[in-house]
Amino acid sequence: MELKGKKVGVALTGSFCTFDKIFTAMEKLVEEGAQVYPLFSDASQTITNRFGKPEDFMKRARDITGRQPICSIEEAEPIGPKGYLDIMAILPCTGNTAAKLANGITDTPVLMGAKAHLRNNKPLLIFLSSNDGLGMNMKNIGLLLNTKNIYFVPFGQDNPGQKPNSLVAHIEYLIPALEAALEYRQIQPLLVDYIE
C-alpha cells in the first residue's frame, strides 16, 4: 500500500536518543507523499536534554510537516470524533508510554491521541524504544501485541552486553511496517537480530 495521500499521525515521546532517526523518518514520509501530523508528549515538549532542546524539536517537526504540533490533551482529543488520521505511529514509544497505553491511561497528548485514534478502529503503530522492554515492561508489550489494531515496527535488543533488557525498533522497517499496518497486518518477522 502506498503512503501517498495518507494522513499519518507521528507522536513523539521521550526517548530522545532516537529523535534524529525519527525526524529523518518524518522527512521520508513527507517525501513519500504522506500528510504528517506531529504530536508531542509532555516530556518531549518540555525536557531539555543532551540531544537537544524541546523548542528545537517542535520547530523541526513543524518545518518538516508544515503543521503545528499537537501539544495538549485538548488538541489531541478531536482525533477521535473527527477521525482524520488513516494511521497513527508512536515514534518512539517509551516503556512509560507503552505501560500507560496497555493499561488505558490517557494523561498525555500522545496517549489521548492514541486512544482517540483507536476508537475509530484504525491502526496504531508502535516504534518501541525502552530500556526495560525485557524487564518490567515485557508484560505491557505482551498486552499490546495482543490488542486489536495495534502493530509494531520490528524490534530487537540494541545493546545486549550493557543493557540486556533494552529493546529498540529498527528504523529501516518503518515504512514497510506502516504499509502493512494500513492493511491491518503485522509485518514479519517481528523480532530482528541485534545490529551494531
Task: Describe this structure as you would to a colleague.
By secondary structure, this protein is an alpha/beta fold. The chain has helices spanning 19-31, 54-65, 73-76, 79-82, 95-102, 109-118, 138-145, 174-182; strands at residues 7-12, 35-40, 87-93, 124-130, 150-152, 155-157, 167-169. 42% of the residues are buried. The protein has eight helices and seven strands; from the N terminus they run E-H-E-H-H-H-E-H-H-E-H-E-E-E-H. It has a single domain, classed as Flavin prenyltransferase-like (Rossmann fold, 3-Layer(aba) Sandwich). The model has no long low-confidence stretch (mean pLDDT 96).
Helical coverage, percent range: 25-40%
Main sheet summary: 7 strands, mixed
CATH topology: Rossmann fold
Number of domains: 1
Our estimate of the beta-strand percent is: 15-25%
Distance between the termini: 30 Å
Shape: globular
Would you summarize the structure shown here?
By secondary structure, the chain is an alpha/beta fold.
Protein traits:
alpha/beta; 8 helices; 35% helix; Rossmann fold; 196 residues; 7-stranded mixed beta sheet
Write the layout of secondary structure elements.
Elements: E1 7-12, H1 19-31, E2 35-40, H2 54-65, H3 73-76, H4 79-82, E3 87-93, H5 95-102, H6 109-118, E4 124-130, H7 138-145, E5 150-152, E6 155-157, E7 167-169, H8 174-182
Parallel strand pairs: 1-2, 1-3, 3-4, 4-5
Antiparallel strand pairs: 4-7, 6-7
